[in-house]
Design brief:
This protein is of the alpha/beta class. 38% of the residues lie in helices and 17% in strands. The protein has helices spanning 3-13, 28-36, 48-62, 72-78, 80-89, 115-120, 132-147, 160-164, 184-194, 211-224, 253-260, 304-315, 341-351, 370-375, 392-402, 415-418, 424-431, 447-455, 461-465, 476-482, 493-504, and strands spanning 18-21, 41-44, 66-71, 93-99, 125-127, 153-159, 200-204, 227-230, 236-239, 265-269, 293-298, 356-361, 379-383, 409-414, 435-441, 486-490, 510-515. The chain has a seven-stranded mixed sheet, with helices on both faces. The chain has a six-stranded parallel sheet with strand order 2-1-3-4-6-5, sandwiched between helices. Strands 8-7-10-11 form a four-stranded parallel sheet. Helix 2 (28-36) links the parallel strand 1 (18-21) and strand 2. Helix 3 runs parallel beside helix 5 (80-89) and helix 3 crosses helix 15. It is globular and about 65 Å long. The termini are far apart.
């Protein structure tokens, strides 16, 4: 078999059966091998940042890596923004980046680039197989690296001649190293902090924000009178009736500093210390009380849930103390009138189907969706972790692929960031995915108005014009229809709730343009 076929077979042996792709000339032998080797679902994205965002969403739902197929250095560059988000989300992905044939690279043809350097900015593992004979084994190494707890990006650079040459062989799945061991001294230190008289916060990180992890944190908090929050980097967490609330560290620096100021001890569970997204004049980078003692219970490469189990035993916490009963659903009256964040929150809490996946890139049009979190049907809530906007629609698309169309996906999508990766709607239409995109059209980059204040700048007419998306106006519903997605433009909450109900009753993608 040739190298390309050995690559496909080795990915399947390692449990990777989905490939999000935007291929080019260098990848044609790999694409041809997909026809000869059954078992890989190949999903086409119209731009590489769509492809990488879909792989991120896929991992967050299944906790299993998919592959991406990208064309040379420029294709990888196009996908780097959502790979940056995926790295911050601790998503496992195997990138396959086609490259020139080894004999052609010295001629420095137009697409030649330093692919290893580009890949290294987001990847924990980078490898360029030197022959078809090595390709299968290196693919198995990449898959094992991507599965390493809590999830990593691995990039396999595929020279065209390695792909087309004979001599390949299928490699067996490699064993994935277990998470690093928990330090018993770390458990004991956390126990002493929590049982002291000091006010203590348990700050929960990404891979621990499961139902079990959150309930364990609350059980410990109930025993020790601590509080619980989630890191701003929590990429996916359960919400809805029966799930303890996990408030995140707020985005605005002043609000975050106020929220954390009372805590003298902070126990970090698989997350770094809380820091601001940006540095601002006269404001701190570290958001916790400057006099607080910060203690790392577990690092991201360790099993934080296991650490919480051990800590719960150490403080004598009853596991059941962190569980909430799933009470009968309260009636929520559907909102009317002019759209507001609170009214959209109420509408979603009333109408959201059970087991929905909510992908939130609403940015400024959000109050945390607290009603939906407390009173809505149980669902999973995903956010864009790395600050690179344009993740929402691709992540929602990948999440729908991961659930094989069996779960409704709702994307709360700001208009400014939607413009980056709108092409993902075409993939939703092509794959017939049950995605509902609520496009929040306020016709501006609203978040930057607040950022002007934060940095102490005074915006003039030119600066404000850079935030204006309304001249000319973007007709989002019309754009969605042109990409094959059914779309509705609404201006009131009555129209919005009708459109939501119709969309949730359908198995096909739908965009609701909510003018706000």
């Amino acid at each position: 078999m040739n190298g390309a076929e050995s690559l496909v077979r080795s990915l399947l042996s390692s449990g990777i059966d989905t490939c999000f792709a935007n291929p080019g000339t260098s990848e044609m032998h790999f694409v041809a091998a997909l026809d000869r080797v059954p078992g890989v679902r190949c999903v086409l994205g119209l731009q590489e940042n769509v492809v990488t965002g879909m792989a991120d969403g896929y991992y967050r739902v299944l906790r299993r890596p998919a592959a991406t197929l990208l064309h040379c250095g420029p294709g990888l560059s196009n996908g780097l923004a959502n790979l940056h988000n995926a790295r911050r989300a601790e998503s496992g992905i195997v990138n396959i980046v086609g490259d020139h044939a080894t004999f052609h690279r010295p001629f420095d043809s137009p697409l030649t680039a330093d692919v290893p350097a580009l890949a290294g900015t987001v990847s924990a593992f980078v490898c360029t197989p030197g022959s078809a004979e090595r390709l299968g084994h290196d693919a198995a190494r990449a898959a094992a690296a991507a599965k390493q707890h809590p999830g990593q990006i691995a990039t396999l650079i595929l020279p065209a001649d390695v792909s087309w040459s004979e001599g390949g062989s299928e490699a067996a799945r490699l064993e994935v190293a277990a998470p690093a061991a928990i330090d018993p001294h770390s458990i004991e230190t956390a126990r002493r902090m929590l049982t002291s008289s000091r006010r203590t916060l348990i700050l929960v990180g990404n891979s621990v924000a499961t139902l079990e992890g959150i309930e364990l944190a609350y059980a410990i908090a109930a025993r020790t009178k601590a509080d619980v929050m989630g890191s701003s980097l929590v990429a996916a967490s359960p919400r809805g009736r029966g799930v303890p609330k996990l408030p995140r560290v707020p985005y605005p620096v002043d609000v975050a500093v106020e929220a954390l100021s009372a805590y003298e001890h902070v126990v970090l569970v698989n997350c770094p210390p809380p820091v601001g997204f940006f540095g601002y004049p006269g404001k701190p980078s570290l958001l916790s009380n400057p006099h607080a003692v910060l203690h790392t219970l577990s690092r991201s490469d360790q099993d934080g849930t296991l650490a919480l189990r051990l800590l719960a035993d150490a403080v004598g916490a009853e596991r059941s103390a962190g569980r909430l009963p799933q009470d009968a659903r309260s009636e929520i009256h559907l909102p009317t009138g002019e759209p507001t964040p609170e009214k959209l929150d109420m509408a979603l809490a009333a109408l959201l189907p059970e087991n929905t996946i909510v992908v939130d890139e609403a940015l400024t049009f959000s109050n945390g969706y607290t009603t939906m979190a407390a009173m809505g049907n149980p669902h999973d809530h995903l956010i864009i972790t790395g600050g690179a906007i344009g993740g929402g629609i691709p992540v929602a698309t990948g999440a729908a692929i991961a659930s094989d169309g069996k779960r409704r996906v709702v994307n709360l999508q700001a208009d400014g960031s939607a413009a980056y990766t709108l092409q993902a709607l075409w993939t939703q239409a092509r794959e017939k995915l049950p995605c509902t995109t609520i496009l929040l059209n306020n016709r501006r980059y609203n978040i930057l108005i607040g950022e002007y204040r934060n940095v102490g700048a005074v915006p003039g007419p030119t600066a404000m014009s850079m935030l204006d998306l309304g001249n000319p106006e973007i007709r989002w519903a019309e754009l969605a229809r042109s990409l094959g997605v059914e779309a509705t433009r609404v201006t009131t909450m009555e129209e919005c709730t009708r459109a939501l109900s119709a969309s949730f009753a359908s198995d096909l993608p739908h965009l609701i343009e909510l003018v706000i």
